[in-house]
Design brief:
It comes from Gilliamella apicola. It holds the Pfam family YrbL-PhoP_reg. This is PhoP regulatory network protein YrbL. With 206 residues, the protein is of the alpha+beta class. The chain has 2 domains: 79 residues, Phosphorylase Kinase, domain 1; 113 residues. It is built from 6 helices and 9 strands. The strands form 2 sheets. Strands 1-5-6-4-3-2 form a 6-stranded mixed β-sheet, covered by helices on one side. Helix 4 packs across helix 6. The chain starts with a strand and ends with a helix. The structure holds adenosine-5'-triphosphate and magnesium ion (MG).
Length: 206
């Protein structure tokens, strides 16, 4: 952990409000996230603490990108995660793109339904608590032409210190159910120009 990894703009994938994400220059299956603004550190630390909690509990990481630990880079301290790639080698893109585009929703309708159902089951099975679930923080990974998987890449964990939901399965389950329903509602609200989504959500809920 003493070596510094040199990142450059050719490694850049994308950014959110807090972090920039880069391809790991020495490992094509990993990415490195570096904070780039104030306020990012608190969120990142909370998330990393929760990742460590999940690793200790030995969860399966079906629903999440794996975490590999901290790293020092020329852009500052970063954290290494599993890079989510499609079967053709492309970096997977966020679910929000599939909801914002009617023809993509239509093309992948069945896979989206299955993916959402499986994601919810995986969260419940491993009792993974999230902050607000947003479609920009879920990647749609194509595993083959007909198979795919949804993976949460951001905003996991709990805001309260020593949260009861982390330890008591009943509270975890009800928190996951509430956060999940809010997420489904937000999909329809944020994409009011895409009428297919009302049907999609009702199929998912069925
Ligand atoms: N594991 C990953 N594999 C592939 N791409 C990723 C991965 N993690 C992040 N990305 C890309 O980098 C972008 C930014 O990452 P991330 O969402 O973690 O940043 P953030 O600043 O925490 O976001 P937010 O604004 O939601 O707080 C994502 O939208 C996604 O496109
Ligand atoms: Mg994000």
């Amino acid at each position: 952990m003493n070596t510094t990894i040199t990142l450059s703009e050719k490694d850049y994938i994308s950014k959110g409000l807090h972090r920039k994400c880069y391809h790991h220059p020495e490992d094509s299956n990993k990415c490195i996230k570096v904070n780039y603004n104030e306020g990012a550190e608190e969120e990142t630390n909370r998330e990393i603490a929760y990742y460590k909690h999940l690793i200790k509990r030995n969860v399966s990481f079906d629903a999440l990108a794996k975490y590999y630990g901290p790293v020092s880079t020329n852009y500052g301290n970063g954290h290494i995660f599993e890079l989510i790639r499609d079967y053709n080698g492309e970096t997977a893109i966020p679910l929000e793109k599939y909801f914002a585009n009617n023809s993509l929703t239509e093309k992948y309708f069945d896979q989206l339904v299955t993916g959402l159902k499986e994601l919810k089951s995986a969260l419940l099975k491993d009792r993974i608590i999230t902050m607000t679930i947003k479609s920009k923080n879920i990647l749609f990974q194509h595993l083959s032409e007909t198979k795919s998987r949804l993976i949460i890449i951001d905003n996991i964990g709990n805001s309260t210190f020593i949260p009861i939901a982390n330890y008591i399965p009943y509270f975890a389950k009800s928190k996951i159910e509430r956060t999940w329903q809010r997420f489904l509602n937000s999909i329809v609200k944020e994409n009011s120009n895409n009428p297919l989504l009302i049907r999609l959500i009702s199929v998912v809920n069925h």
